[in-house]
Design brief:
Length: 719
């Protein structure tokens, strides 16, 4: 018979003693359990002891977390958190260097546990840590343990970051700004400042003032990948905590200092592979940089602004210089206005008498004007060729430069997500962004010439304007999906993807769709589906067996602890546990926690998950909600909460868990994979029918013969 739900069978270890195998009554108070365990080993003063997990993070067992203990767990009898906190509190004040170092090392390890942290902080332990840092007498290993312990203690949010003294903050800053400091201390100091910045604008101002951006740029050029990562994390924290004006000022300074070159050379093209964390920071930096265009994108043109009118006039003057050089007194006002209107019409403005009206729509607002001016000033030959070439065409066939520029700017804003908030989890950045100053403007210059090229290939008229822009959008998105490493490569590929290539791709997709819609093919699809769905199920379970590295996202910062989860080869148990940074595929034996598949009750996703409901911020990040899922398990309905690293992993894990629960796979990836497999299988089955039209109805069965007395007489043939 299975044990009652309130009883778990566990082992308890103690150094120098034979382990005890006991049945833990979950309804029995922990104090009574500890007394029984201590009595079995003849230990007095049971109140001085506590239980903690023997493996993994070695968390102390309390009344609040005891329900997490599973059958087969191995616990250890150890000193109680209050006794340990008291001992270490005294130890870190010792005059003996060895005792002090060992105490700080132990403190850094135990501070991850919330029960111990609470006990240590309640003894004013943080004050002692402040003193060690502020006095500045300890360096090297001792200081590294101190900073590590401080970081872990602050993670529990018992103490506000705003309580830190100015002396302490300046000391941490000095470790960042000094060269003759151990790299581990610099990493911890950068991490502390990164955590500090988002908590209040006052602390943001202090860090921004005390840590020069030049210093962070120096770290980005370092060969130590962890130093690069921590410096980038602090830089991103500063940018996200800044006001719009401060962010613009910081980005302008970083642009002057060629931050993109440092990133392109030392991070993207580094010998070490790019980690998920750094990929996220590069995405955020790209997003923040592009979002500087949002202000101009949302600003309509003011017809009374002399500066904006001058920019508009410069477009006309650059395109029609010879005609604009006529002396002012040659023509009357009406004649001059008529000439200007004619030139603005040639430029492709819809409202040629008042071209400012074309730029009243926001978005793209003044950003379109900025792009046109940039194109005219930085590539004057291409600009003049575009305008003059279309001026000489028939009215209906001319490609309107201004109208195309306005629409193209809007398309680029949508493709690059300008004006949208940064995702907490995304890692999709364009390597070519960091290889080019004025990326958005240079991208526009390439794409506006693409518009003219596509217009000519399509032999378009004014009525085809929307069709041309749809093709251009498709050309840009298809090329960007290939992740070109430079704008030159983007230019080469997007120009190679001409209108005829787009037509071929569309036709291939259409033919494929038409083929798969024939009635006999649809029937064949239905017959193949069960077999292919089983194949997908097996693939999902294999993926769960390989396992995935998950990240715990805290409310204050993105990077936090890592943990790994994988399914046992017999598909009966989910193993999981915390792992260190850099561990790719830990063996099942190293993952201490287990959930039997038989105990799994249901799968929750998105807003239904308890860890998305627990957050008190009120407004949830959409991306996190899309990646969150939870397994409800056990009779008591505990939850194991996940936040998938990518949407792909989310789909594979939710599908795999649904398979284990005996339910249908519901993710969008299932349908995509099924379509791909069906397409391949159908093509293989229909190879012999190439160029043969498949009728919708099966051919009629011929009538039976009038008699069935027919056969070949072999005896006559032999004679």
């Amino acid at each position: 018979m299975p044990p009652p739900k309130d009883v778990v069978k566990i082992a308890i270890q103690m150094v120098g003693a034979i382990p005890q195998l006991i049945e833990l009554q979950q309804t029995k108070p922990l104090t009574s359990v500890l007394k029984d365990v201590c009595d079995a080993w003849s230990l007095p003063n049971a109140e001085r002891y506590a239980l903690q997990y023997a493996d993994g993070r070695q968390t102390y067992i309390t009344e609040s977390n005891r329900r997490d203990i599973k059958n087969g767990s191995i616990l250890r009898l150890t000193t109680s958190p209050d006794q340990e906190a008291e001992r270490l509190y005294i130890g870190i004040q010792s005059k003996n260097v060895d005792v002090k170092t060992d105490s700080l090392k132990k403190l850094a390890s135990l501070s991850q546990d919330i029960t111990f942290a609470q006990e240590f902080i309640s003894r004013n332990g943080l004050k002692q840590i402040y003193s060690i840092v502020e006095e500045g007498n300890d360096t090297g290993e001792m200081l590294a343990h101190t900073l590590k312990a401080f970081t872990e203690l602050m993670e529990h949010d018992f103490v506000s970051w705003e309580n830190l003294s100015t002396v302490f903050i300046k000391k941490i800053v000095s470790y960042v700004n000094m060269n003759a400091v151990d790299a581990s201390i610099q990493q911890l100091s950068l991490s502390i400042l990164e955590n500090m910045v988002p908590t209040s604008h006052l602390l943001f101002e202090v860090v921004r003032k005390e840590v020069p951006l030049d210093r962070l740029l120096t770290y980005l050029q370092a060969t130590n990948a962890q130093l690069q990562l921590k410096a980038m994390a602090l830089l991103i924290a500063l940018l996200l905590s800044a006001t719009d004006a401060e962010r613009r000022e910081m980005m302008d300074y970083l642009r002057e200092k060629n931050i993109r070159q440092f990133i392109h050379k030392n991070i993207i093209h580094s010998s070490e592979p790019l980690g998920d964390e750094m990929a996220h920071y590069l995405y955020v930096l790209q997003s923040v940089s592009l979002n500087l265009c949002e202000h101009r994108m949302k600003m309509s043109m003011d017809p009374y602004s002399q500066e904006q009118r001058d920019l508009l006039q410069s477009l006309r003057q650059t395109a029609f210089e010879s005609e604009s050089e006529v002396p002012a007194g040659t023509f009357g006002t009406e004649r001059r206005q008529s000439l200007c209107a004619k030139e603005f019409r040639k430029l492709g403005f819809m409202n040629n008498s008042n071209p400012a009206e074309d730029l009243r729509r926001a978005p793209p607002g003044l950003l379109a004007l900025d792009n046109m001016v940039y194109f005219s000033r930085n590539t004057p030959n291409a600009y003049s060729r575009f305008v003059l070439e279309n001026s000489s065409r028939e009215d209906k066939h001319e490609c309107p430069f201004a109208r195309s520029s306005i629409q193209l700017t809007l398309i680029l804003c949508e493709i690059l997500h300008i004006g949208e908030p940064c995702s907490e989890t995304a890692q999709a950045f364009y390597p070519m962004f960091f290889g080019q100053d004025h990326f958005f403007e240079e991208l526009f210059c390439i794409c506006i010439q693409l518009v003219n090229k596509t217009w000519k290939e399509m032999r378009a008229t004014q009525e085809d304007f929307d069709k041309v822009m749809q093709v251009v959008r498709e050309q840009i998105t298809r090329t960007l999906s290939l992740k070109p490493t430079s704008l030159e490569l983007f230019k080469t590929r997007v120009n190679a993807l001409n209108y005829s290539e787009i037509l071929k791709l569309r036709q291939t997709e259409r033919l494929h769709q038409e083929e798969t819609l024939a009635v006999p093919v649809l029937e064949l699809r239905e017959k193949l589906k069960p077999e292919l769905l089983e194949l997908i199920r097996q693939q999902r379970l294999l993926h769960l067996c390989e396992g995935t590295l998950f990240r715990k996202i805290s409310s204050r910062r993105r990077q936090d602890k890592l943990w790994y989860c994988r399914l046992s080869p017999n598909h009966k148990v989910l193993h999981y546990g915390d792992v260190e940074e850099g561990v790719q595929s830990p063996p099942i034996e190293s993952l201490p926690e287990k959930i039997p598949v038989a105990d799994m009750k249901m799968l929750l996703v998105g807003k239904e998950c308890p860890h998305t409901k627990e957050k008190s911020s009120g407004k949830q990040n959409k991306d996190v909600l899309e990646l969150a899922f939870s397994i409800v398990h056990d009779v008591e309905e505990y939850c194991l909460n996940f936040i998938a690293p990518t949407r792909y992993e989310f789909c594979l894990w939710t599908d795999g868990l649904n398979v284990l629960l005996g339910k249908e796979m519901t993710s969008e990836r299932t349908q995509t994979d099924l379509d791909v497999l069906l397409s391949m299988e159908l093509k293989l089955r229909l190879l012999d029918l190439e160029n043969i039209s498949i009728p919708d109805e099966p051919p009629p069965v011929p009538k039976p013969p009038s008699n069935l007395n027919f056969c070949y007489d072999f005896s006559h043939a032999e004679q």
